[in-house]
Amino acid sequence: MFIAMNRFKIARGREEDFVEIWRQRDSHLDGVPGFRQFKLLRGASADDHTLFASHSVWDSREAFEEWTRSEAFRLAHRNAGDTRGIYLGHPQLEMFEAVL
Length: 100
Fold this sequence. Notes:
alpha+beta; 4-stranded antiparallel beta sheet
């Protein structure tokens, strides 16, 4: 099993806008080989931001990497730049392989 997470710093007061973007978004993950599950997680808040993480579970790192080169990935991310003022910086990708 492989987990890919993107950590997002979201401007305070824009949290619901961020969640709504994800709620309305077509992820194009249905039927992608090796995809198991997706969750959007909300974390702690600081003075200027709230931490969120996208959490996707895959059969393998190879399945995840294949998806990042696919048309489904391009379609899911085509409007990523339309969210000015919501994000504080770029997402931080973290990848994990299950060991137990």
